[in-house]
UniProtKB/TrEMBL annotation:
<dbReference type="InterPro" id="IPR002685">
    <property type="entry name" value="Glyco_trans_15"/>
</dbReference>
<comment type="similarity">
    <text>Belongs to the glycosyltransferase 15 family.</text>
</comment>
<dbReference type="GO" id="GO:0016020">
    <property type="term" value="C:membrane"/>
</dbReference>
<dbReference type="GO" id="GO:0000026">
    <property type="term" value="F:alpha-1,2-mannosyltransferase activity"/>
</dbReference>
<dbReference type="GO" id="GO:0005794">
    <property type="term" value="C:Golgi apparatus"/>
</dbReference>
<keyword id="KW-0808">Transferase</keyword>
<dbReference type="Pfam" id="PF01793">
    <property type="entry name" value="Glyco_transf_15"/>
</dbReference>
<dbReference type="GO" id="GO:0006487">
    <property type="term" value="P:protein N-linked glycosylation"/>
</dbReference>
<dbReference type="InterPro" id="IPR029044">
    <property type="entry name" value="Nucleotide-diphossugar_trans"/>
</dbReference>
<dbReference type="GO" id="GO:0000032">
    <property type="term" value="P:cell wall mannoprotein biosynthetic process"/>
</dbReference>
<keyword id="KW-0328">Glycosyltransferase</keyword>
<protein>
    <submittedName>
        <fullName>Glycolipid 2-alpha-mannosyltransferase 2</fullName>
    </submittedName>
</protein>
Length: 423
């Protein structure tokens, strides 16, 4: 190694005329290679540095060889490919915690991007359905915007799941594991009471009445998803479920719309909840409000939730399988206190409180009415219900595949009229 170094560098210093030596006079004396030659001659590398040199040399040689012989390796390690991974300023580290980044000024192709991610909670078994949703939203929206996707699961995602998703996404993708204390039924929940609650719903023929995993999911979506490390430095999320459809091109950026119009929560479908799943939810909400009247927003949407000034709940809620919302709203003091209070009553397990009424009640009470957005222009379907944009012009311009008569908006089970009445 010593021989190699001294041979090359000394010769570089003496051989004439080379481009290198022609340039030498213009360099400062300290940078002249010939000036370091004497030092190199007397330089005796230690055994460790000799080994290190050999290792570095071998790696470089191997890398060069692989680049020449394997096209895929060459592509993967090319500077453009490596820098593409850093083009979006979000690279989760091993623990999934992102570096803080100021998103207020992120531009892609001259248009501003929001600090936002598209979020899907899914099981490995739902890969086909998940891929359908991703493909739809990519085709209709994200292939033009390149927002990152985040997938969460209480079990590690399989390689098949990850590979298939990576094949159809345009932006960066992250796969996160949900911490078990964010998912599973806590020890302090009285299991006997929870079993009785499940049996009761089964006897009433209520969907998912006997399912503990469904309850885990509802509790997670109510109070934990926004605490996941992968979401830590985001402000906005778009919730997407497996097997949903987006029927129209979304040519505007809903995140930027929310940001610029001071919105915190948005929906496309609103409907009634099963009363049997939340027998004590409203009383619990009223207790909380009595204790914390300061969290009620001025000009809130109580009239959408209640037909009698808050005495009873009319079961109206925003269908939370679609949500574009501000994570800071859930992280804020009002919602944190609210969720903790609800959770302490264990209604997620003793009954079957859904994240949809929990989110909706909070958004309707702790945000102003004008902070909640109905996105008419987003054609959306989660079976069995569809929202199709009302304006014929919008349906035509955005190549909507839905038909307006399919729209759930003004059917008997919809709460749209109630929402419109309070506007
Ligand atoms: N990882 C994981 N995800 C789940 C589990 N249960 C539900 N989910 C996800 O949670 C979301 C809601 O679950 P769904 O089964 O769609 O519940 P739903 O929309 O009320 O009911 P459906 O009408 O059956 O769609 C979806 O994104 C599911 O993929 C689970 O046990 N594990
Ligand atoms: Mg669903």
């Amino acid at each position: 190694m010593k021989f190699f170094l001294s041979f090359n560098l000394c010769n570089l210093g003496t051989r004439e005329p080379t481009i290198h030596n022609m340039l030498l006079p213009s360099l400062s004396p300290s940078l002249r290679l010939c000036s370091i030659v004497p030092h190199l001659r007397s330089f005796k590398p230690s055994r460790t540095s000799r080994y290190a040199g050999v290792v570095v040399f071998t790696i470089i040689a191997l890398h060069s060889l692989l680049r020449i012989t394997h096209e895929a390796y060459g592509r993967m390690t090319s500077i453009p490919n490596i820098s593409a991974h850093f083009a979006w300023p979000l690279t989760g580290d091993v623990a999934g915690v992102r570096d803080p980044f100021d998103f207020s000024n992120v531009y892609v192709n001259g248009t501003r991007r929001a600090n936002a991610a598209i979020l899907m909670l899914a099981r490995n078994s739902e890969i086909d359905k998940a891929a359908n949703s991703v493909r739809d939203l990519e085709d209709r929206f994200n292939s033009n915007f390149g927002y990152p996707w985040i997938f969460l699961n209480e079990e590690p995602f399989t390689e098949e799941f990850k590979e298939r998703i990576r094949n159809i996404t345009s932006g960066p993708v992250e796969f996160g594991l949900i911490p078990s204390d964010h998912w599973f039924q806590p020890d302090w929940v009285d299991e006997e009471k929870a079993t009785q609650g499940r049996d009761k719903l089964v006897s009433q023929n209520i969907i998912y009445g006997d399912s503990v995993s469904y309850r885990n999911m509802c509790r997670f979506n109510s109070g934990f998803f926004y605490r996941h490390p992968l979401l830590k430095n985001f402000k906005w999320y778009w919730r997407v479920e497996p097997d949903v459809r987006f029927h129209c091109d979304i040519s505007f950026d809903p995140f930027i719309y929310m940001e610029e119009h001071g919105k915190v929560y948005s929906f496309t479908i609103t409907l009634y909840e099963y009363r049997e799943t939340i027998p004590t939810l409203w009383d619990t909400v009223k207790e909380f409000i009595n204790d914390h009247p300061e969290y009620l927003a001025p000009n809130n949407s109580m009239a959408y939730l209640s037909n009698d000034d808050g005495r009873t709940y009319n079961l109206c809620h925003f269908w939370s399988n679609f949500e574009i919302a501000d994570l800071d709203f859930w992280r804020g003091e009002a919602y944190t206190e609210f969720f903790n209070y609800l959770d302490s009553k264990a209604g997620f397990y003793y009954e079957r409180w859904g994240d949809a009424p929990v989110h909706s009640i909070a958004a309707a009470l702790f945000a102003r009415k004008d902070q909640i957005q109905f996105f008419d222009e987003i054609g959306y379907e989660h079976a069995p219900f569809t929202h199709c944009p009302r304006a014929g012009k919008s349906r035509k311009e955005n190549h909507c595949s839905c038909r307006p008569w399919q729209s759930f908006d003004y059917t008997g089970y919809s709460c749209m009229r109630k929402w419109e009445k309070i506007q």
